[in-house]
Amino acid sequence: MENRIFGYVRVSTREQNEDRQLIALREFEQPIQRIYMDKLSGKDFNRPAYRRMMRALHQGDLLVVKSIDRLGRNYDEILDQWRIITKEKRAEIVVLDMPLLDTRGGRDLTGTLIADIVLQLLSYVAQTERENIRQRQAEGIAAARARGVRLGRPPKPVPPHFFSVRDLWLTHQISSREAARQVGVAQDTFLRWAREKKEPGAPICKKQ
Q: What positions does UniProt annotate as the active site of this protein (predicted)?
């Protein structure tokens, strides 16, 4: 089987633009026959396109990525996948942003050692950056809540006829499932509203 050249592209969300990576792959010194792309987080390697690529990758093939963090952001898993590709599948890898991470051709012992050190360092940086992003997100959420900012979807409004339907349920004329259907919400939502919502000017009585 003729050796092939694969490219791999990853962005974390559907809103992010993959053009920069695609341009870099298309400018590679040799034509890339097939490019696989995922729009998912790099926290692990359970990604559809990546898994398809790994099934297609065989001995002598070449995998090209723009940077090591496009491969993933989990330190241990990056090292494990690198080992699987280069040792088990006996394929080659080129990381465009880091020329030292190029397994093509024979390397002497010093070159191999340097590549291993660089790989471990970059993998560690990729995971650290991911953890820093999560920490900044958590801090941003906490600060927003401290300012009284409501996060997430706005609460579903209670329809005007809720209280009359609730009264039918409280007097055992309809079931909670039927009450929820009439109000247009899930049964759990109706029961929560029945406990929490209070009709203006009237105390709520709870069904035992």
A: 12 (o-(5'-phospho-dna)-serine intermediate)
Mean pLDDT of 124-153: 72
Range of the domain at 91: 5-132
- What would the DSSP string read from start to end of 7-43? EEEEESSTTS--HHHHHHHHTSSS--SEEEEEES-SS
Mark whether 164 is an active-site residue.
no
Write out pLDDT tens, residues 39-60. 888 778 889 999 999 999 999 9
Q: Note whether residue 50 is domain-resident.
A: yes
The total domain count for the chain is 2
Catalytic residue among 12, 41, 67, 176: 12
Is 19 in the same domain as 121? Answer: yes
